[in-house]
Amino acid sequence: MTPGPGRKGLLFRTLEQDGHVTVLPSDADALVAAGRLDRGLFDVTALLAQRYDTAHTDALPPIVEESDGMTGSSLDELTGLAENASVRRLDSIDAHALRVGDADLGRFWKALVSAGGQRAKAADTLRVGLDGR
């Protein structure tokens, strides 16, 4: 595993359960435990099976669920990192489906988690899941 830009020195925990390998960065642990981040975003086995690897795609498709406490600027910051014309409103679940390109994944992550691994304001009020195939 090669950490992305700005993530050198970060600890990663590798878990294997039921034939699935999950690589969980330490700054995601609390958000996954709180149900704010879908563990599927880190399930390497499932991501490969769905062809969400760099050999098959240049973007990750998260779904950002809105909540009552979420500010418009928080949502705009996250959706603004999506590829051109790739934000779809999902009215039935109060969410937005995005396609965040590889080059913007680091900025997308920083919008969710502060540098010290503490929850950012937006992360306290939204949920991010994987738009699985």
| N-end to C-end Cα span | 24 Å
State the helical fraction. Answer: 10-25%
How many strands, which pairing sense, and closed or not: the largest β-sheet?
4 strands, antiparallel
β content, as a range? Answer: 15-25%
Q: List low-pLDDT spans.
A: none
Q: Tell the overall outline.
A: globular
Query: How do the strands of the widest beta sheet line up side by side?
Result: 5-6-4-8
- Number of H/I helices: 5
CA-atom Rg in angstroms: 14 Å
Write down the secondary-structure element order.
EEHHEEHEEEHHE
| Alpha-beta content class | alpha+beta
- Give the rounded overall mean pLDDT: 80
What secondary-structure arrangement, pairings included, does this model have?
Layout: E1 12-17, E2 20-25, H1 29-33, H2 44-49, E3 59-60, E4 62-65, H3 72-79, E5 88-90, E6 95-97, E7 100-101, H4 105-112, H5 121-125, E8 127-130
Antiparallel strand pairs: 1-2, 3-7, 4-6, 4-8, 5-6
